[in-house]
Design a protein that fits this description.
Helices cover 0% and strands 53% of the residues. The chain is mainly beta. The termini are far apart.
Length: 187
């Protein structure tokens, strides 16, 4: 599907110069002289390169639709992650860096959604929120105001998050995977 260069939005996946790119950031600029353009920061979904491109309103790009499939995370072996297709039980191994910081939140048996382009895995979407256990939490510093006094804590997967003062080691909490932030106490 062709779209105008100024209609690109963050998260859109486009075909550009023979590659598949995800729009990360956009900035619409309308200079005093000349036509308006869209400054787009893009990340290549195949090799991870980043690129900044200016698209004028007269230019068109091909918006790509990715296929999505349900997979289950099986295990991690070094810097490789193994997933299983929930329909065909076929296994796929991907590098850890394809997931970025979210890879630390993978749990055995976790259901994920894999985005495929021409049957090739491009990205893996984890659930937005997961439950984790606090293994280490700093003591509360007396005298701080209660409204903004978050303290650092370390989760069972090694990720450091900021939590409210009443959260102690051993507490199960809900964490936002992509913001790496405390959401609430787990029930």
């Amino acid at each position: 599907m062709k779209i105008s260069g100024v209609d690109i939005r963050p998260g859109n996946i486009i075909e550009y110069e023979g590659g598949i790119w995800r729009a990360v950031k956009i900035q619409h600029t309308q200079p005093g002289k000349g036509g308006a353009y869209m400054q787009v920061e893009m990340k290549n979904l195949i090799d991870g390169r980043k690129n900044n491109v200016r698209f004028r309103s007269a230019e068109t790009v091909e918006k790509v639709r990715l296929d999505t499939k349900d997979f289950q995370f099986l295990f991690q072996d070094g810097d490789q992650l193994t997933f299983m297709d929930k329909e065909s039980y076929e296994q796929v191994t991907l590098p850890t860096d394809l997931l970025g910081d979210a890879a630390a939140f993978l749990q055995d048996g976790m259901d994920v959604v894999m985005e495929l382009w021409e049957e090739r895995p491009i990205s893996v979407q984890l659930p937005d929120q997961i439950e984790a256990t606090i293994v280490e939490a700093d003591a509360v510093v007396k005298g701080q105001t209660a409204s903004s006094s978050y303290k650092p804590a370390i989760l069972d997967n090694g990720v450091r998050v900021m939590v409210p003062p009443h959260i102690t080691a051993g507490t199960r909490i809900v964490v936002d995977v992509y913001d790496q932030a405390y959401v609430r106490r787990a029930e």
